[in-house]
Automatic annotation (TrEMBL), chains A, B:
Protein name (Swiss-Prot/TrEMBL): S-formylglutathione hydrolase
Gene3D superfamilies per UniProt: alpha/beta hydrolase
Pfam families: Esterase (PF00756)
Coiled coil region boundaries: none
Amino acid sequence: MSFKIKEEIRCAGGKLLKVMHSSKATGTSMDVNLYLPQQYYDGTAKGKIPSLYFLSGLTCTPNNASEKAFWHREADKYGFAMVFPDTSPRGPNVPTDPQGGWDFAVGAGFYVNATQPPYNTNFNMYQYVHSELPTALTEFFSSGTRPTGVGSIDFLENVSITGHSMGGFGAVAGFLKNINKYKSCSAFAPIIDPTTTPWGVKAFTGYLGEDKSAWKQYDPCELINNVPYVSGKEILIHYGTDDQWKEQYLRPENFMKLVPQSLWANHINVKMAEGFDHSYYFVSTFVPEHAEFHAKHLGLI
Amino acid sequence: MSFKIKEEIRCAGGKLLKVMHSSKATGTSMDVNLYLPQQYYDGTAKGKIPSLYFLSGLTCTPNNASEKAFWHREADKYGFAMVFPDTSPRGPNVPTDPQGGWDFAVGAGFYVNATQPPYNTNFNMYQYVHSELPTALTEFFSSGTRPTGVGSIDFLENVSITGHSMGGFGAVAGFLKNINKYKSCSAFAPIIDPTTTPWGVKAFTGYLGEDKSAWKQYDPCELINNVPYVSGKEILIHYGTDDQWKEQYLRPENFMKLVPQSLWANHINVKMAEGFDHSYYFVSTFVPEHAEFHAKHLGLI
């Protein structure tokens, strides 16, 4: 479970750390980026520094959001750490998409636990992101090899989750399936109706099999009807109205129709941002609003 | 001189435009990114919106800084437009580095006018950046095909310049050689002593020839002794103390030793940022300080 620090990069008031560790869930080495805010270094945090997990989209590594979403200044402003997991296991023995696509297998783990061979050996990103990684980070930061700094970071309890596209799906599904774990959830252009849209159908078929009853456990459109609302919790979602994937691959209207009749009515806020697309230009624009939202739920403001 | 708008991307309060046009200086089509701030769209600017030119570093296209430097929010805050030129001409007929490197020729135009064949046909980036492009943008925004918006942008007169690494060199040299054109200059980790450091020596030899007297016209270490100080003008420079290129490729101490005895003594501020490297994590961290510096010189604050 030990981590290796590959790079430590000064950024804003803190540091971006590129680390790697060996994962039991995926059977591979996994890359993770961490942003440790100013408060980790100057010791001004009141108590433990909470953390926000950012799940990335198809084809991404931990670097895309680290470079382009610009969470750093917001993390310093409120005093939370960021965790950027990878989007899948990688390596010579990890099976790839038999169709040669970029929307399944490597770079496209979809944050589920695969049950179908050959993917079930490595593609256990649900277990990895929501359980193994938080525990491993907690152990790492309690060890003698923890990154230099005076603060204490909470990777397990006072935590929230967000993500983009496939990672937005992963954040919403993971939040609802771990409703006592995360304080809040947000998403940028999530694949919110995965059982009827092409990316989700391909991934769920490949990882979970043809039997659609197995898909329901990860389907946000189902989960909002099955997971009882927990007081104080909220989900914030943004879509760009000019998102090139929205009509066919995301279909937010399917989800939005279900929310008012669901157990989560009035606690899910889906906002349509006029003229924005699916890119990190969109994500970075709304990061300050999402940061403030999570900071409130994490007790920082 | 007509521009084609390839993409118009909503970002922060304005839009990032990816445009292309035909250049006489380079004999090629040239890509340019523009950030048009909120004030271009809402008409709240008092008078013409000034612009800030950002010259990028080795291997970059206009996209690197657009995606990773985070000027957008600062441009909205003060009300200036951004111009991100490409780093060189590109195309099937543009000569490449005979050594196959990434530090000369394509992606590495160094913002000079080449005199040596075969580079002198296309590699006239000095002429392109400081003269042709500003004029072409002015014509474009005066034409019937200008980007939709209500504001008026000044690309010619109330303008400033900045850049990173090779582009930081280009900004400082271009500023000093056009001292009545730009209101202010800043640079992130500029190649400030190009006549004694490897990247500069390779570029100047290839573009300008073996005769080092031809190199002086672009050398910041010479220009600060030859260009009389103009009242009110200033240069702001940041380096990261952990910049991996600093010792061998940038050598700021050579320049800093000359400043106090130069015509520009007390008007060039070189700051060393503890622990920062050469990357866009460094650039984006100091963009707010540079934005405020330019906004002051452009009369916006």
